[in-house]
Amino acid sequence: MKKLLNGLAKFIAVIVAILFVISLVLTLFLYSLEKTAFDAGTYKEALENEDFYGRLPGVIGDQLVTTMGEDENKQFNFSKYLKAEDWEYLITALISPEELQKLSEETIDETFAFLNGDSDVARISLRGFKERLASDRGADAFLTFLEAQDPCTEEDLLALENYANSKEMVFCNPPERAMNFLEPFLRSQLRFASEKIPDENIFLRKKDLGSEFSEFQSLRVLIRLSPIIPVALLFLLTLLVVRSLLSWLRWWGIPLLSAGGLGLIVSLVAGPILQSRISSALLERAAMGVSGITLQLSHDLLSTITSRFVGNIALSSLVITIFGLGLTLGGVFVKKSEEQQNRI
After folding, report:
1. Is 50 a residue whose pLDDT tops 80?
2. Which chain regions cross the lipid bilayer (predicted)?
3. CA 116, CA 220: separation in Å to the nearest integer?
4. Quick one: 330 and 214 in the same domain?
5. What are the φ/ψ torsions at residue 230 (nearest 5 degrees)?
6. CA of 224: how far to CAs of 114, 200, 205, 235, 245, in Å?
């Protein structure tokens, strides 16, 4: 009867050990995902690695051109004649890298405040950019931009003088004699362009997400509690079969070694799969108002974040593998020691 019970206990222990390995690997995946996705440091590191602050002016410029191209307002203003590279030049002159970094970090803070339930909306303020665009700094930046263009021809100057009637804007480097009428004109047009830009842009709104957001938050709580499952299974495994140092080393070492090794394999396979899914998701769900360069930057940032996520899984799996290997080798050593003592 005792042998039967011991055999049954070992059989159940094997099942529990298998469940432990599976649950631990899933926990590594889910816990690393939650930790990576909701850690502000993840995104700040990604922004730095992808030269975000250097690329952002070009992204904003391209997005402004895309947005203004969809504007149904028929009133003419020179902003509609600016190309993406023109906006990039102006934005770089108007906003320093330090200001861009501050704006980006504020956006990250807004996003995490929203995701953590501290705010019902996540917004980005454009008021500072609007004020600089309509200020002397904006006018000086645009004049510097014009100085970088080819010299104005007589036809160009005539077009500038008759802009109010022709509604056609040209960009060229005007002579000194043209600056008396051109500078006030540019200032008024910059003020007009700044008025078209909203004070803030709300990019996340809880009421727009509905019940999906609540379900998402509940899922995060479950992910945080997921380590309880493998710990409970390991405790059950201990109660079933651990009766000595040797049995403890074996019944802990082999499952931990298996879970760590499987986790390493998952980390190697997950990287390419997630990269492919990111590309597909951006192509399938990209809104029509999002420019290509914006999507490219989003792809690069998500790829960097994915790499960190996979790296966290690999590191945790490696630690578990080493620990499990140590216990397993310890079991082999204890077994040999016991055999030697029995011979004596």
Report:
1. no
2. 12-33, 221-246, 252-274, 313-334
3. 10
4. yes
5. -65, -35
6. 19, 34, 25, 19, 32
Range of the domain at 113: 66-205
The residue behind tokens 């030269």 is 51
Q: CA–CA distance from 300 to each of 47, 271, 296 (Å)?
A: 9, 14, 6
Is there a contact between 197 and 2 (Cβ–Cβ < 8 Å)?
no
Report residue 249 CA to chain centroid gap. Answer: 41
Domain count, the chain: 2
Q: Over range 190-210, report the average pLDDT.
A: 76
CA gap 23, 15 in Å, rounded? 12
Q: What tokens were used for 226?
A: 């997921």
Answer yes or no: are the C-beta atoms of 171 and 147 closer than 8 Å.
no
On whether residue 135 sits in a domain, the answer given is yes
In a domain, 29, yes or no: yes
Alpha-carbon span 160 to 174, nearest angstrom:
10
Q: pLDDT of 144-165, one tens digit each?
A: 777 767 788 888 777 766 654 5
Domain shared by 37 and 86, yes or no: no
- 177 and 236 both lie in a single domain: no
Q: Is 240:13 a contact under the CB 8 Å cutoff?
A: yes
- Where does a domain end: 176, 205, 234? 205
Give 283-327 pLDDT, tens digit per residue.
Answer: 665 554 555 666 666 777 777 788 888 888 999 999 999 999 999
Say if 118 falls within a structural domain: yes
* Residues 96 and 158 occupy one common structural domain: yes
Give the model confidence (pLDDT) of 229-271 as tens digits.
999 999 999 998 888 888 899 999 999 999 999 999 988 888 8
Question: Higher pLDDT residue, 225 or 126?
Answer: 225
